[in-house]
Design a protein that fits this description.
By secondary structure, this protein is of the alpha+beta class. Among the domains are: 80 residues, Tetratricopeptide repeat domain (Serine Threonine Protein Phosphatase 5, Tetratricopeptide repeat, Alpha Horseshoe), CATH 1.25.40; 188 residues, Alpha-Beta Plaits (2-Layer Sandwich). It contains 24 helices and eight strands. Strands 1, 2, 3, 4, 5, 6, 7 and 8 form an eight-stranded mixed β-sheet that branches. Strand 2 and strand 3 form a beta hairpin. Helix 17 runs antiparallel to helix 18. The radius of gyration is 37 Å and the shape is elongated.
């Protein structure tokens, strides 16, 4: 199976996942895994299998597959895909309610995305982090992450993602009882989803708006939004969401004392929950139906039916281990039996109600304590992430200051040994004539100031001409063009740099009245370049071309640019336009360690 066929199958698996066809997606993914040989393809399959397992709530398998993908991506130094998988692992731990671990993976993914400048992925992860804090009821922190994610999505023009975040912000404000702001964000989210034609998201937001109006006791508006959401879910065939909204509409009608309508919606919702196998939803609806029949203000009051529905709902709540639902139904049954004067049963259910109420309060206190502990761990993790990020950024800054940008990035990406060969580079050497004499006649501060003033200008001119500074040794300065980035016009760049340095020195002497002159030597050829050292890195060049360039400088003259015949020929052969320079033959001369060589002075 060739590369194109593999990618086609992987695309098919992704599409099957989006349709909810997990068995088909898994079959296709395993077919690819059986034939894939390239590590990136294998990692992609593991990532898909992990996603399928997560969607099936098979979290152990999901972690196994995602960690396998992560190990491959890390071994390949593929940080972009590794951060995606870390986000996936964060989602798995979020589903497992292991919020500190979820935040750990989300934070790692966020830091890598920020480093890579991947704003889309960073915004998505920030939204996930906001969701964790929202579940922990830390709404200020949730809103902080949501707001930043929203700003990033808006900046990127990602309106669909921005609408999701706005909806989440609206829900957070609803939980904080800030209903005007909740309506503001939910309404904007709804408008965007309608504009984009994202019907499922629009229906979800509409249902949430209806929930806010219900909390505000604005039943007409609550019904308007919920009914429209229900119609959209039915059109989409989303039965689970339709059943949920239908039950909420029944609750609104019950509060309005529209009991026949309430029962109509409850009975339809109950049938749908039973069909879908949603036992919790069915228990909740049965309890609501029982409440309606137990209401003496309802013309169709029926104690027997109320008892039947409530006892069945109570039994299901007990089986599900839902203590809150259980004690609520116990209270309703106790009230019903009190109206029926069945005193012994009233006492038994009231007693059970109080016992469960105390247990729930105790469980909630434990849960709140756990949430506080989660928050503490998360805050520690967040602080650690910030410290690590700050340290990393400082290390990154330092590396970029002492190494070429491309080399610094390779070290940050995990390369431990950097050694490259370059066939065509041009090398610049310069030296201050009589430096020892100069240093003996001025103070230490003046000496350092002199060198700093000169070399800062050298650095500026090197950047202007596209050269890479290699090092300074005392009063000597070395730079190269053609490494670590190959350049066809390396000789032209070095020649321009040398002439710029000459002009700068002339101006410097005029301004400072200091009699400071340079010897400059240029040569071109093949070099080896690499990084040496473990803690104090140094990027350097080696080879005969380096030695020859140094000899051109040492055998040169004050204020002149001394070049080899190889450099002259390279410059002439690679220049497209007539050069505004000339070469003054110096004849053959004996160069230390090289023998006889033809050399030239390069002049404007």
């Amino acid at each position: 199976m060739n590369k194109d066929e593999l990618q086609l199958l992987l695309h098919k698996a992704t599409e099957e996942i989006s349709r909810g066809n997990y068995d088909e997606a898994e079959q296709v993914a395993n077919e690819v895994l059986a034939t894939a040989e390239i590590q990136t393809d294998i990692a992609q399959v593991f990532r898909l299998l992990g996603q399928i397992a997560w969607l099936r709530a098979d979290y152990d398998t999901a972690l196994e597959k995602c960690n396998a993908a992560l190990r491959i991506y890390e071994s390949l130094h593929d940080h972009q895909h590794a951060s995606i998988v870390r986000g996936n692992i964060g989602n798995i731990y979020d589903s497992l309610s292991d919020y500190p671990r979820a935040l750990e993976y989300f934070s790692h993914a966020l830091a890598q995305n920020e480093k890579d400048g991947n704003k889309v992925a960073a915004a998505s992860i920030r939204g996930n982090i906001g969701g964790v804090y929202q579940y922990l009821a830390d709404y200020p922190r949730a809103l902080e992450y949501y707001t930043q994610a929203l700003a990033e999505h808006e900046e990127l023009g990602n309106e669909a993602a921005a609408a999701i975040i706005r909806g989440n912000i609206g829900i957070a404000y609803s939980e904080l009882s800030d209903y005007p702001r909740a309506i503001e964000y939910l309404t904007r989210a709804l408008a965007t989803n309608e504009e984009l034609g994202v019907k499922a998201s629009a229906a979800s937001v509409r249902g949430n708006i209806g929930g806010v109006f219900y909390k505000l006791c604005d039943y007409p508006l609550a019904l308007e939004y919920m009914t429209q959401a229900l119609a959209e879910y039915e059109e989409l065939g989303t039965k689970a969401r339709a059943a949920h909204v239908r039950g909420n509409i029944g609750i609104v009608y019950a509060d309005l004392a529209e009991y026949p309508l309430a029962l109509e919606y409850f009975n339809r919702a109950l049938a749908e929950h039973i069909e879908l196998g949603n036992r919790a939803g069915a228990a909740h609806i049965r309890g609501n139906i029982g409440k309606v029949y137990a209401n003496e203000h309802y013309a169709g009051f029926d104690a027997a039916k109320a008892e039947e529905y409530l006892l069945e709902a109570l039994s299901q709540a007990e089986e599900l281990g839902d203590k809150r639902m259980h004690y609520e139904f116990c209270k309703i049954i106790a009230d019903l039996y009190e109206a029926m004067k069945r005193w012994s049963e009233v006492s038994a259910y009231y007693k059970r109600y109080h016992e469960l109420y105390v247990e729930v309060q105790s469980d909630e206190a434990i849960q709140q304590a756990q949430q506080m502990e989660y928050r503490r761990k998360i805050e520690e993790s967040d602080r650690d992430r910030q410290v690590k990020l700050a340290r990393f950024q400082e290390q990154e800054k330092m590396l970029h200051n002492i190494l070429p940008a491309q080399i610094a990035e390779r070290i940050l990406d995990g390369e431990t040994r950097i050694a490259d060969s370059y066939k065509n580079v041009s090398i610049f050497f310069s030296d201050i004539i009589g430096f020892t004499r100069i240093s003996q006649n001025i103070s230490a501060d003046e000496l350092v100031t002199l060198l700093n003033d000169l070399f800062v200008e050298f650095d500026r001119l090197a950047r202007k001409n596209g050269l890479e500074k290699i090092k300074t040794i005392g009063d000597a300065y070395m730079a190269v063009a053609g490494a670590p980035i190959a350049m066809e016009d390396h000789a032209q760049r070095v020649a321009n740099f040398a002439i710029d340095v000459q002009l700068m020195m002339k101006d410097y002497r005029s301004r400072t009245q200091q009699d400071v002159h340079l010897r400059i030597g240029l040569h071109c050829g093949t070099v080896v370049a690499g990084v040496i050292g473990e803690n104090k890195f140094s990027y350097d060049l080696w080879g005969d071309a380096v030695n020859t360039a140094a000899r051109m400088e040492s055998h040169g003259e004050a204020g002149r640019i001394h070049v080899s015949e190889e450099f002259r020929n390279e410059l002439i052969s690679t220049s497209l336009n007539e050069l505004p320079i000339q070469f003054i033959p110096r004849g053959e001369m004996d160069i230390k360690g090289k023998g006889k060589m033809k050399t030239y002075f390069l002049e404007r």
